[in-house]
């Protein structure tokens, strides 16, 4: 049985290596389009900023995602996916902050260009978490993390507090409908799940196409939940 399990594991690893190239090629192509869109947005905001048109155009911004936009949510949890130590943050004003960057994240740059006086704080408005994925089990070998479903639950609590502060759900919904919502997850569902067959069984359970479809269904479900929490998402980067 052990020998058969070893053979199965070897076959899965070989199969994954052969399919990885095509999946990565497709992912890189999609990421290129996403980065082009972000560059265009940034250029537009820079143009407006230089001509004095930006004076915080939106009241708030909520960030959902993984290490690309985590600004410190993993600092106080038991996780290997942390960046609150040098050389991270060597170019950030306050030093290491939990950002997986030498300085600002893309979310920091966008919100800065939108006219925000300060960076979006972790825990409430920014719920992104390094090693997080669309699937709840993604990244578990790295320790604690806040999955997409966990981030949505945290946002629900934030919305409830906003409704209490504003006096009614209607007032909160009107306020939140003017906010920007940024979602960016999915890479860990491959890098820290599907491509790690010694830890996860997803490569045995799904073909690449089936896995992508399952991620899309789960992702869509979480988005639908977030839109039902008193909000109408006006913008999604």
TrEMBL record:
Pfam families: Lipase_GDSL. GO terms for cellular component: extracellular region. InterPro entries: GDSL, GDSL_esterase/lipase, SGNH_hydro_sf. Belongs to the 'GDSL' lipolytic enzyme family. One of its GO terms (biological process) is lipid catabolic process. GO terms for molecular function: hydrolase activity, acting on ester bonds. This is GDSL esterase/lipase. It comes from Linum tenue. Coiled coil: none annotated. It is found in: Secreted. Gene3D superfamilies: SGNH hydrolase (3.40.50.1110). Keywords: Hydrolase, Lipid degradation, Lipid metabolism, Secreted, Signal.
